[in-house]
Design brief:
Keywords: Membrane, Transmembrane, Transmembrane helix. The protein is mainly α. Helix content is 80%, strand content 0%. The protein has 4 helices and no strands. The protein is flat, with a radius of gyration of 17 Å.
Length: 123
């Protein structure tokens, strides 16, 4: 049953990102009344897109945690800390890529990932 839950999380993430781009974000970004942050609506659009797809990454992280519970190497804590680190590394990369570093969340995401890796490797 947990395999089905993990699969559904992966599937929901794919559908969420695809349909969100196709039916919500594209239509939203065609509007002229988006807030202008840092001088234009470019930053607003990039942050909204980054945040939208960040949800998918989080869901995939939950799927990985479920798989960890199913197929653990013996120490759930270390495995889960490493999964969390990967999720936050991907989140940081997405923040950097989508906003070209202007949204400072990447800094915090990489710090969280580093702390999780450090604790996981010394557990």
């Amino acid at each position: 049953m947990l395999e089905a839950a993990a699969f559904l999380l992966l599937f929901c993430g794919i559908i969420h990102s695809y349909l969100g781009e196709k039916y919500i974000l594209i239509r939203l970004f065609k509007r002229d009344n988006l807030p202008k942050l840092l001088g234009s609506d470019w930053f607003t659009k990039r942050v909204l897109r980054f945040a939208w797809h960040l949800t998918t990454i989080a869901w995939w992280g939950f799927a990985a945690i479920i798989c960890c519970i199913l197929y653990s190497s013996g120490n759930y804590s270390i495995d889960i800390l490493h999964i969390i680190a990967v999720v936050f590394i991907l989140s940081g990369v997405m923040s950097l890529a989508f906003t070209r570093g202007k949204h400072l969340s990447w800094l915090f995401f990489f710090c969280i990932a580093g702390l999780c890796i450090a604790v996981g490797n010394n557990y």
